Amino acid sequence: MDLKSKHAAPVLTDPVPVSKSRLGISSLLSYSSPGAAFPSGLYLTIPRKKPVPGKLDDVRAAGWLDAMKASSPPRKKLTKDFNIEITSEDNDVAYSSWMIKYPSALTSFENIMNYAKGKRIALFLDYDGTLSPIVDDPDRAFMSNAMRIAVRDAAEYFPTAIISGRSRDMVYEFVGLTELYYAGSHGMDIMGPVRDLACADDHPNCIRSTDKQGKEVNLFQPASEFLPMIDEVFRTLVENTKGIKGTKVENHKFCASVHYRNVDEKNWPAVAQCVHDVLKDYPRLRLTHGRKVLEVRPVIDWDKGKAVEFLLESLGLGNSEDVLPIYVGDDRTDEDAFKVLREGQRGYGILVSSVPKESNAFYSLRDPSEVMDFLKLLVEWKKSKKGKGAL
Fold it and tell me: Can the keyword Ribosomal protein be found in this entry's annotation (predicted)?
């Protein structure tokens, strides 16, 4: 899944190991200013090379176009007369075969709960494509009231966090539940209650603040020094892509997203080239791919997997063998969290997908409606355990 380029644009490499402090973040917090030397373990080494002449050759050689197509599977076609999906027999067979490796979390629920006996479940959820459907306009990716109730009920019984690529403020506005923990910008902006989120007051990247209800909270922002740079890149991307019909650029505080969902596929190379031309002047920023979106993020050893680890540690659940983290997500960026849970044999990743694709997840769900069913099953299971006197 890593994207490697021979050109001047930022590239993704294997993350540098982070030192094992209590929160696993000591090496991430040792810098204080933009001019400070980069400590090892925080930034990834990115060689600066001259770009290869020839416009679209840059993004083709870098593999951007292939990655854009790979991360943007086509939607299933609908009939004109009936709102019914037409799925070929071959596709059904392929998906059924794929589910042998990634079985449904619904049909496997009993197996999951057998493993959860005697353990405390911690729940982590992506937003887009997981709690809400993927839509053409990102500003209208609303979750249903039924889903909101399901998430609220789950949070009543389990520590629950939403980890999204959106800005923390935006995802909080969409969800509107005060019972949750929120991590925006792929985990680079984490908010939690002071009573739970362990965060030293003198920490350079952890600050005391208040939420929209005036409640005191802690904010952890390991990439805070990048804010001016992201703002600058966002404005440049807006200006440089305004001539490409259908392009939408969003500022998610610690990352900038360029959506091409509504761009004619023949113009995808132009979108990629615009982003490439901007990023080649910012060696401390990198590109990642999502569902029909190019995301510009700081070159820092931090992702959704690190956010899961941080939240677990902050809640006092990090090194406990009686904790079962469950992460539900649909996007490539969620793979970092799936990988953390799989490699450490700590919990389960659940991939939300209606098409076969390789993943570090253990289980699968087809779409947000199945996610809601899974959350309801979790709540029913917990209620039944409480009814029997088990905690």
Answer: no
Answer for the pair 182, 197: CB distance below 8 angstroms, yes or no: no
> Which domains are delineated in the chain?
88-188+302-388 (3.40.50.1000), 226-298 (3.30.70.1020)
| CA separation for the pair 303, 187 (Å, rounded) | 6
CA distance 353 to 269: 26
CA angle (360 as vertex; 354, 74 as ends), nearest 5: 30
Q: pLDDT of the chain along its 391 residues, tens only?
A: 333 333 333 333 333 333 333 343 333 433 333 333 333 344 444 444 443 334 555 666 567 777 787 766 555 443 334 344 444 566 888 999 999 999 999 999 999 999 999 999 999 999 999 999 998 888 899 999 999 999 999 999 999 999 999 999 999 999 999 889 999 999 999 986 565 555 544 456 777 777 767 777 778 898 989 999 999 999 999 999 999 999 999 999 999 999 999 999 999 999 999 999 999 999 999 998 888 999 999 999 899 999 999 899 888 888 788 999 999 999 999 999 999 999 988 999 999 999 999 999 999 999 999 999 999 999 999 999 876 654 4
Query: Three-class SS of residue 36?
Result: coil
Q: Which of 293, 250, 238, 235 has the alpha carbon at shortest distance from 268?
A: 293
Whole-number Cα distances in Å, 189 to 162, 212, 287:
11, 16, 18
Give the whole-angstrom CA distance, residue 183 versus residue 172: 9
Residue 221 in contact with residue 245, Cβ under 8 Å? no
Please give the torsion angle defined by the CA atoms of residues 151, 301, 345 and 350, in that order, rounded to the nearest 10 degrees. Answer: 40
